[in-house]
Specification:
The chain is of the alpha+beta class. The chain contains 1 helix and 4 strands. A 4-stranded antiparallel beta sheet has the order 3-2-1-4. Strand 2 and strand 3 form a beta hairpin. It is globular, with a radius of gyration of 15 Å.
Length: 101
């Protein structure tokens, strides 16, 4: 585990989560993934996640993630809850803007 000065903007929750991942269809990409692959995320924050994946994704590839989390997150502080809430709200707002355009 890294013991130096923390450089991340958001604190990460060190907990395993199951998720589905696929390459996102977007402009400039000929075809996206049609199916979902299962991955185990090692941690989660409002700024990102870490997971091991069996395929080489390449730099700059956009992904769709479906994160399986319990209905109620336990053993996390109010700051972590607020960070996740804010990230989800921003993602939903962006998704709504994209679907309207």
């Amino acid at each position: 585990m890294y013991k130096g000065q923390e450089k991340r903007e958001y604190k990460r929750i060190e907990k395993l989560f199951m998720a589905g991942v696929r390459v996102k269809q977007h402009e400039g990409l000929e075809t996206g993934s049609t199916g979902w692959d299962s991955v185990t995320m090692h941690n989660l924050s409002a700024g990102g996640t870490s997971f091991t994946y069996k395929k080489d994704l390449g730099i700059g590839i956009l992904l769709d993630l479906k994160i399986d989390v319990p209905i109620k997150l336990i053993d996390i502080g109010e700051q972590e809850k607020e960070a996740i809430y804010t990230a989800v709200a921003e993602a939903l707002e962006q998704a709504n803007k994209t679907s309207v355009a």
